[in-house]
Recover the amino acids of this structure.
């Protein structure tokens, strides 16, 4: 008996340490980059492991925040995140609700046509040609409309809606509720974890917008944040130096500061959604 | 969209008569009664037609000599010309090889790992610890590859990255994780696993939560230890989830991670890093050879589809429920 307990204890110690180690290697790159963004160049060069900053400077942030391109791309990303997510939610909720009504004629065939698009797609080139033909090149619409509905999110939301007992909807209708009334007063309030989860997924996708932007946006003044960031991180930074202001010395710090500026909003909203999405994603996953 | 007073008044009336007339009601009347639902569906239908079915039709340019002035309809048919050209191209096979190598390595490392993490997390009794670890390991899933690529450069850099500094202080030679052809693919695979293992563990956690706790209690009474419980209760109970996830992953085997590779690769590692998607991007958009690029895209879709069907068939033969 004592041996068994000791075995259990050894397992627990190893298990907790291993999981803590996983958490550490997940967080450390973020922490290291944050430190690099706030320490002076001298300290960056002198020590190899930056566990904590010995001295702090916000030079990199001041330099970065004075860049017009940053504000431009930040604006673009904010617009597509807010407007794009609104479009996403409006279209996804409406379609998911309609498709969740069991008596809807033609529901099965429509679901088939929707799920089919997950298996077969025309590929990026035909899509590119169609978006070009629709006149969306270099327009922010190209970053919102072609991704207006994510099929996986639609299916998840639909299964949320379906899990609401239909008696509730029936009795609301008998009490004089219209379809819209049922949707807004019963279905949506009861599906808030699902709606919160999907809102987060869509918002993050827009915030991280990169794929569509490299295809459809070539005008630098309409670059979303991620394209601006790619320019800063991976292309010759002299394009952004703009003058004699020794960008070389600030190099790594500015890069990491840019990275932080793009990451912090996600770090800020993520905890608010987390309790919902773990539940939401699970429910969606199990139901599918 | 607001609801008028008339509609509110009219509905209960219609509703109360429904049961009596339902027998004779034709399909058209029920469609008319559901007109608001169809109106709600309309934007989605337009969306799927425009951005999914039209491109599906547009994929026919793989069999045409696409000319941007003439459009998809007006361009002349070319038969299998582009496919023949493609299959004779050495670069094409190199790209397929890279895609498969990266994808299968990712499956090999990246599929079991989240399952192991979920099993370990499931053994944690301390709720605060469990939640904190989960919060942290889900995080990278929400961060873009551009940002994570920047982090990787910072940590893996040849001159002053933490990892190489550690290697140097232990007396080893620095490793060009992202510049050396020998290491590039492994770096990609491990960083993909690093980004997604936490998130991928969620679905296993969900499956684990669904296992009947009485089974464990009974096993404890019978004197089973943790390992025996995992092997004879947990795994059999979640094998259907494992099977479905495996099928879905196999159906995506041709997706080797466009964004990550596109952000991190450079001409020095093209020979090991070029995957189907990056190659399509370069020859399609950079060189403007639309038909050829569409042919590659179509080929990719087809392989994915075939793999999905095969994997589904195998799981059904093993007595599990498939995806369809």
């Amino acid at each position: 008996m004592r041996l068994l307990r000791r075995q259990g204890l050894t397992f627990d110690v190893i298990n907790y340490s291993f999981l803590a180690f996983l958490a550490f290697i997940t967080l450390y790159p973020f922490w290291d980059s944050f430190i690099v963004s706030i320490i002076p160049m001298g300290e960056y060069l002198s020590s190899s492991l930056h566990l904590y900053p010995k001295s702090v400077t916000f030079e990199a942030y001041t330099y970065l925040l004075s860049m017009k391109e940053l504000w431009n791309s930040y604006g673009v990303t904010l617009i597509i995140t807010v407007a794009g997510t609104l479009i996403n939610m409006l279209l996804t909720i409406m379609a998911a609700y309609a498709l969740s009504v069991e008596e809807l004629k033609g529901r099965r065939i429509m679901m088939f046509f929707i799920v089919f698009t997950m298996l077969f797609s025309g590929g990026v080139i035909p899509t590119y040609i169609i978006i070009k033909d629709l006149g969306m090149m270099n327009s922010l619409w190209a970053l919102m409309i072609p991704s207006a509905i994510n099929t996986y999110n639609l299916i998840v939301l639909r299964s949320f809606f379906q899990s609401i007992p239909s008696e509730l909807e029936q009795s609301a209708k008998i009490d004089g509720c219209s379809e819209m009334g049922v949707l807004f007063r019963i279905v949506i309030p009861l599906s808030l974890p699902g709606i919160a989860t999907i809102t987060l997924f869509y918002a993050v996708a827009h915030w991280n917008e990169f794929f569509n932007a490299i295809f459809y946006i070539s005008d630098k003044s309409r670059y979303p944040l991620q394209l601006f960031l790619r320019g800063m991180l991976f292309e010759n930074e002299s394009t952004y130096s703009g003058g004699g202001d020794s960008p070389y010395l600030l190099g790594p710090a500015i890069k990491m500061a840019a990275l932080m500026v793009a990451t912090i909003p996600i770090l800020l909203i993520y905890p608010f959604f987390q309790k919902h999405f773990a539940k939401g994603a699970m429910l969606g996953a199990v139901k599918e | 969209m607001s609801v008028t007073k008339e509609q509110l008044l009219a509905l209960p009336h219609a509703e109360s008569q429904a049961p009596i007339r339902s027998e004779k009601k034709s399909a058209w009347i029920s469609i008319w009664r559901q007109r608001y639902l169809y109106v709600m569906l309309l934007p989605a239908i337009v969306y799927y037609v425009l951005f999914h079915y039209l491109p599906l039709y547009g994929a026919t340019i793989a069999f045409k000599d696409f000319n941007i002035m003439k459009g998809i309809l007006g361009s002349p048919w070319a038969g299998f010309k582009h496919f023949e050209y493609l299959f004779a191209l050495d670069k094409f096979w190199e790209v397929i090889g890279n895609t498969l190598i990266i994808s299968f390595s990712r499956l090999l490392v990246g599929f079991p790992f989240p399952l192991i993490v979920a099993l370990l997390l499931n053994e944690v009794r301390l709720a605060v610890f469990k939640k904190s670890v989960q919060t942290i390991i889900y995080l990278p899933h929400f961060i873009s590859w551009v940002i994570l690529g920047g982090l990787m450069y910072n940590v893996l850099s040849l001159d002053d990255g933490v990892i190489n500094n550690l290697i140097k202080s232990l007396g080893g030679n620095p490793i060009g994780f992202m510049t050396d052809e020998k290491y590039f693919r492994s770096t990609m695979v491990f960083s993909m696993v690093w980004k997604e293992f936490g998130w991928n563990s969620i679905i296993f956690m969900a499956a684990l939560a669904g296992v009947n706790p009485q089974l464990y209690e009974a096993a404890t009474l019978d004197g089973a230890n943790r390992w025996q419980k995992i092997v004879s209760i947990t795994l059999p109970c979640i094998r259907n989830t494992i099977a479905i996830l495996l099928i879905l992953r196999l159906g995506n085997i041709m997706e080797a991670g466009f964004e990550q590779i596109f952000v991190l690769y450079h001409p020095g590692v093209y020979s090991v890093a070029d995957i189907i998607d990056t190659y399509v991007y370069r020859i399609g958009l950079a060189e403007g050879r639309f038909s050829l690029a569409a042919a590659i895209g179509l080929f990719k879709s087809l392989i994915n589809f075939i793999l999905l069907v095969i994997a589904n068939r195998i799981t059904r033969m093993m007595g599990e429920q498939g995806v369809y």
